Amino acid sequence: MGRMNVDQYREVDKLPLVVVLDNVRSQHNVGAVFRTADAMRIERVVLCGICCCPPNAEIHKTALGAEESVAWQYYKDTLEAVKALQDEGYTVYAVEQAHDSVTLEEIAERLSGAAGHDRIAVVLGHEVFGVQQSVVDHCTQCIEIPQYGTKHSMNVSVTAGIVMYRLSEALRAEKLKIKN
């Protein structure tokens, strides 16, 4: 299928998109985020708080080795991670249902029309409690995925996949010419 190996993957350009996991407890969810991050060729995953870190058999079971190709960092405190990303020049968004949130599509449209200098980080939260309020308060804005059914939440790894896909498409369209 013409896939690159881990060493080749580490050398290719990545999208300026970072996924921050705020106290995600499920090792399977963490693994799924790694696997999708690899597929979308995003820059890195930041694991915070109670998130389990590689190497870990349960992460590997879902990541299928993507935890070896995707760069990652660990911070004990998510707020510290957010501040560090902001210091690096990232615009940090919480993926959370909140007053004055904007839709994922609105953010994607902003990125598509940008001048090519955006570095984006998205924070996804705990499976039950979401993103900590102190973290939300330090983010630029909240991104929300419109939902039309009876439930008002989705699994964190599913949400991460939707967000990574849509934002990576917007970034890819205007910003980076990634070698295939």
Could you list some keywords that capture this structure?
single chain, 180 residues, alpha/beta, Alpha/beta knot, 8 helices, 42% helix
Give a nutshell description of this structure:
The chain is of the alpha/beta class and 180 residues long. The chain has helices at 6-11, 27-40, 57-63, 66-69, 78-87, 104-112, 133-138, 156-174; strands at residues 15-22, 42-48, 71-75, 91-95, 102-103, 120-125, 141-144. 42% of the residues lie in helices and 21% in strands.
What does this structure look like?
The two termini are 12 Å apart. The radius of gyration is 15 Å and the shape is globular. By secondary structure, it is α/β, with parallel strands linked by helices. Strand 1, helix 2 (27-40) and strand 2 (42-48) form a beta-alpha-beta unit. The chain has 8 helices and 7 strands; from the N terminus they run H-E-H-E-H-H-E-H-E-E-H-E-H-E-H. It has a 7-stranded parallel sheet with strand order 3-2-1-6-4-7-5, with helices on both faces. Residues 176-180 have low confidence and may be disordered. Helix 2 crosses helix 3, helix 2 runs parallel beside helix 8 and helix 6 packs parallel to helix 8 (156-174). The protein has a single domain, classed as SPOUT methyltransferase, trefoil knot domain (Alpha/beta knot, 3-Layer(aba) Sandwich), CATH 3.40.1280.
